[in-house]
Amino acid sequence: xxxxxxxxxxxxxxxxxxxxxxxxxxxxxxxxxxxxxxxxxxxxxxxxxxxxxxxxxxxxxxxxxxxxxxxxxxxxxxxxxxxxxxxxxxxxxxxxxxxxxxxxxxxxxxxxxxxxxxxxxxxxxxxxxxxxxxxxxxxxxxxxxxxxxxxxxxxxxxxxxxxxxxxxxxxxxxxxxxxxxx
Amino acid sequence: xxxxxxxxxxxxxxxxxxxxxxxxxxxxxxxxxxxxxxxxxxxxxxxxxxxxxxxxxxxxxxxxxxxxxxxxxxxxxxxxxxxxxxxxxxxxxxxxxxxxxxxx
Lengths: 182, 104
Prior knowledge:
The complex is a heterodimer of chains A (about 180) and B (about 100).
Chain A (H helix, E strand, L loop, with lengths): L7 H5 L1 H18 L4 E3 L2 H6 L8 E7 L2 H15 L5 H22 L2 E8 L3 E8 L9 H6 L12 H8 L2 E7 L2 E9 L1
Parallel strand pairs in A: 1-5
Antiparallel strand pairs in A: 2-3, 3-4, 4-6, 5-6
Helix pairs in contact in A: 4-5, 5-7
Chain B lengths: L2 E7 L3 E10 L4 H10 L5 E12 L1 H16 L3 E5 L3 H9 L2 H5 L7
Parallel strand pairs in B: 2-3, 3-4
Antiparallel strand pairs in B: 1-2
Helix pairs in contact in B: 1-2
């Protein structure tokens, strides 16, 4: 499916885009029981994701081989912080998000943050063209929806396995933060 | 671990033992193996040593299975680990591919 990226703020005027943004943010929140949080730049920057950090892992996402390296290093860092099963689910989410960065934005950054006994944060960011927020609902809830040649299940997986999904996206890039409570 | 397929030749069937991780980086190896298979009408895919698969790996896996069935080979998939089974169920893979080929 070929999706043309429209800069909605230009087409509709800033107020209309803001209204559209709020509408979609509310819809996503409702449909996911508050799990999906779509944030503007300002709100995203203001969020304090953690109180104290024990461990941080950073890795660039440049090529397909990086995805496996990221999984391996993440596994090592998360060892013992949660059950094997839970870590497995987190690793799967990590693989989905980092793959999406490569598929949609060619490259980006990966960060794993561990707040001991509290939460695990998976943070991926890129400087791609952004996610068309009109399509977010379909990406999460429609079986097999994708704008690339793929199974279209990446978002469904992260929705199933994470406790919170923070999304900040526009035509300068995208940040997604997954929160897993311990 | 990367990805590797061990081939075990049986009398009738050819067994492909998957080892390692199937993701965006390794699914291309499936494409290479597609053409290497000899004239065995039956293929058994053994997932006992498959350590990891994500949705991109699953897509490649399904495409691989479909390419085999298009060649009129019978395909069976066995030894699915619980974690792999869970994601197959989450993504309705059994419905998508057809339950018949999975040894559950």
